[in-house]
Amino acid sequence: MSAQITAGSCQWAEARSQKSEVRGQAGEISLSVLIATGVIVGIAFFISHHEFTVSRSVAYTQSAEEMELAASGGNALRRIAFLGLGAWGLALFAMGKQRLNIDWPLMLAMSLLLALATVSFVWADDPGMCLRRLMILYCSGLAAAGIARTHTLRDLSWMVMVLLGTLAVIGILVEVALGTFRPWGGDYRFAGTVHPNTQGPALATMCFAALGLINEKGRSRGWLWMIFLVGVLLLLMTKSRTTAAAFFASVAAVQLVRLPLSMKVSGALAAVWLGAVGLWVVWVCGFDPTTDFRDAVLLGRAEESDTLSGRAFIWPEVLRFVEERSILGYGYESFWTPVRIEVISSELGWGLREAHNGYLEMMLWLGWTGLVLTLAVTATGLAAAVRGFLATKDSAYTLPIALVVFGLINSGLESGMVVITTVPFLLACCLLRLGLFRDAANATAGTKPGPGILGVDNSFVGHREQVCSRLKTI
Questions:
Q1: Other beta carbons within 10 Å of 313
Q2: Is the dihedral of CA 26, 28, 29, 32 positive or negative?
Q3: Has this prediction a pTM greater than 0.85?
């Protein structure tokens, strides 16, 4: 009798699994929706953050007066663009059929960080500025949630590669039209329609997406490799040193996750040996590694390396304000008011509206509390991405793994990964996909049986399937 009950349970589990597969196939979103999503995301962020004349601006940025004006009134067109993006996200969420499969540690950390940002309106120095920034945050969150529900990580990789590649091509065409595209010039930095330090992370993200797609089985890799290599070349042309270092470290981290332990050890030993041999060859050829390579490593920008391009002067000024409100900060994106921009810019002698450090930026907004929660989101997101790759061996996990590692490193010298721009938004899409709609194989890997959330208890079904497979071998 017990054998019959067990066999019937196995048949039930198999039938339920087949129904889930059919349901998943029925829930797939058409290519046209993916294209529409890419177009809407691209237009929203292009309107918000891109300018055609950036490559002609002094130091590729605004003056202190322009920064103060932008901070005082906001940007009405930007708000309209993000309202449209949020509306599209709601439509995608209603359109999607993917059922919730929550990664609780990741979503708890993200929810607490969002709640802290929301209530920071109460103590913000400029409530109007905080409210405008929160509106952008919530519209972006709605859009990211809708995209996460309707598009897989592989879909996101294709959208990221095409979207950011298109923006890079537009940037090249704009520079050609303006006569500022001069890659042969010693002081040239590729900017396109944004600051080079913003263009760099976008190109790095495009390369991460291409790298994940290259590793797909049975897919033509030639033109994907071409996109990857062109992206790396353009990235180096931005001469963004922090971005370049973070990019190569992120690629190495992805390979570290992908390779078995024996190959990791062998690769590390080989890298040390090749590095030693390379230095010896350079020394024999008469080059001085301490001077000749310094300029190459710094991408031809060694003149300001001693002060980290002025950051050694910026950070002490900013830390004075951090100490005054170290626990909860000055409110979400509410520190850089026109008055503070004027005061700090006057002290430094040039226009400034960011801390040039993502960790300091978060402390200015939400204090130590916000920084700890941000690191919690980072840690749980990276853990979810690595766990998903180990469970599924899906190369699409390259994108979130690389982006999280990239953000950790890049934030040491830049603030771009904590503000709402294209790359952080795309990372949020990946994290919400991992947190709300993780793969079934990822959900059952290393989990204990427990109650499901708005859907089939995947860990319980996975346990049944294991029992069934064992019974069939008896």
A1: 15
A2: negative
A3: no
